[in-house]
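Schema walk-through. Below, the input block comes first and the output block second. Nothing else is stored per chain. Lengths vary across the set, and this one has 800 residues.
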Amino acid sequence: MVSLPIRRLIAAVALLCTFGLASVAMSQTGVDQSAPLPIQPLPPIDTLTGAPEPQISDTPVEVQSHFTAPDGDRPAMLYVTAKIADGYHIYSITQAPGGPIATTISLEPAPQYSLAGEFTSQQPPTTHIEPEIWPGLPLEEHYGTVTWSAPIEFALGFEPSDVTIEGGLGVQVCYETNCLPPETLPFEAQLASDADAAIEGEYRAEDSAVAIRAYLEPRVVQPGGTAKLLITAVPDPRWHIYTRQDSDPKAIGQGKPTLIAVDAPEGFTVYQPETNDPIVEKESAIPGGGVERYHEGDVTWSATIKVPQDVEPGDYPIQGNVGYQVCLADGACQIPQGARFEGVLTVGTEKLLGSKPLNLSAASYTEAAQQAKALPTRPGASAGEDRPLLTILAFAVLGGLILNLMPCVLPVIGLKVLAFVQQGGESRARVFALNLWYTAGLIAVFLVLASLAAFANLGWGEQFSYLWFKVALTGLVFAMALSFLGVWEIPIPGFATSGKATEMAAREGASGAFYKGVFTTILATPCSAQFLGPALGFTLGKPPYVIYLIFGAAGLGMALPYLVIGAFPRLIRFLPKPGAWMETFKQLMGFLLLGTVVYLFSTFSEAYFIPTLALLVGLWFACWWIGRTPVTATVERKVTAWVGGAATAAAIGFAAFTLLAPGETLPWRSYSPTELASASAQGKTVLVDFTADWCPNCKVNLKFAINTDEVRELVDEYDVVPLLADWTDRSETIKQALAELQSISIPVLAIYPAGRPEEVIVLRDLVSQKQVIEALKQAGPSQPTGDGQTGASATAMNAP
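--- output ---
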């Protein structure tokens, strides 16, 4: 049974974390990952179009595909289109697990081509939540027509016109919440002519470095409802497009802003287009050009269209112009361009989800500039542009206050509660001063983040995109958890853990209070909170002083409970007196910090799990060594423990990230007998590395003898095909391949020379980089021939 002091401390933590939040109700519901998707008979289609009802045996999804040839800097693109019968839907390729089955696109392996990037959807999915079936899980659904595209590469010697790409579209087709069993629909793609390559809803001017897409959704909207006009710009690699403005400011030395002019029927209200895509701010490459604001990569603007309540069902024309300009980072730009979009917004008695493409045609930037005008801001818009600064500052304070509820922050707040207990017998002035130091630590981190946002364009929590930061923070949290659990003591007043000899040191001092504030804020940055998002979004494009004000207000909000308690200590007079319960409570906080470590691991890519875990073991040893050194030990012994522990942890971490972390590697493909035979048939020299995660010598070979710059240079020069035969899990195929090489163990490195793969060169056990390079030189380069055949293929065809 939990003791009374512990129960009272838990209540105190809850009071502290929820201070000032009586009006804010927050709840979080989990997703039942095991909830089965209901598979029931599908009802007949009932739509506004009056289309004939298909039989249940009919496939409600038709798949079409084609690809384009490479053109200058633009790669070849593969397009896969699903045309979905009215009333049905499928799920996006990014649908989160735990609910419906996401759509997948797979290609049959072939030597002629390879996928050079990820598939992306041209039409955004419709997102909503079904709380009764999958509570808390966003469902991403496609209705009508959806097209995915991905870049592809053709192997040397193959003409796109002679290639057929085969693949399958894996879908789960549903009608409302009733679904058919998942199936894979095959497709074959061939090179499309210029006319056939045209994609509905997409326009690209001749020699332009950007494609423009335009869609309306939903396909049918009810009277009084809202529709969306979606305008997407897809710049080619290295090009960027400028942010949207209401009009052309005709500024000298700057790129032209994107303009979107919309003409809707009388009574229809069109609101200002919005985007959530990131904005880059950079000094113009042209002297005197000022600061330019633009988007790198794809960007989508969404303009909400309010339909009148009394409008009659029917088709209503929606048209307008888009003006845009794309530039390179060095300041080279294409001339400003334009595109005209036209289509109809269908109003009916029943809403029909999905998007429909608009017709796009050539226009000029001047036309868009002449028609562009300021549009009203959508009610409830999250950008915050229409709100006064004081309102935004209030949002920032409230958002910072809510950050105290973040789970990873609670252990540190628990430590702060213990500090309040220790301060019980101290003067009111000292208590307030210590809380001021804690607030200073909080706000210091917020001001650092404000500086990064103002001058380095680093967003809230973006530091977690850097591996070194995540590894360092994980190690810090782990070391603090060990301190809470009594393995060692952090030598900062207020962080010391136990023991009569350190009783005085354990009392919180100014440095301890300050660092607690710093640590609390750093742990809070992976999370956002209600009201904080709109406040931080308001900083986009604002001068530095506004950014500092908003971040400072958020820090003040986070520190507000501690300032109030510091000023009025009687608010926590119900806290129990100091006693043995404090050690138990602190250890519980240590386990919560270990939970934070588990969470931080979820932010790593899997390739860095093992190196980081090894580093934590090194830190554990260092903390154990330091912790077992008595407080009464000599200075020499203490220094030995600290230096020895730190050196050991550093050595283990360095070795782990050197040997176990991924680095620059060869362009590996997965091994299969078919892949080996296909590459050999093309006259390629093939390198096959038989390896496994459980094989230490394999890791050493890969790190120091194979995946090296020197080997990579020779592989590129000789056009060698590297294949990775991963035997981590049992594979009869790999076992048979090893047997053919007269091997029963790994590591094994096999090199099949071009044109004579039967003369395989085999290197076993530990090898050196020199041995690998010599073996590659002995095998020789790949052997293309002039007639489009290569190596072994040409030899076979010329044989009598």
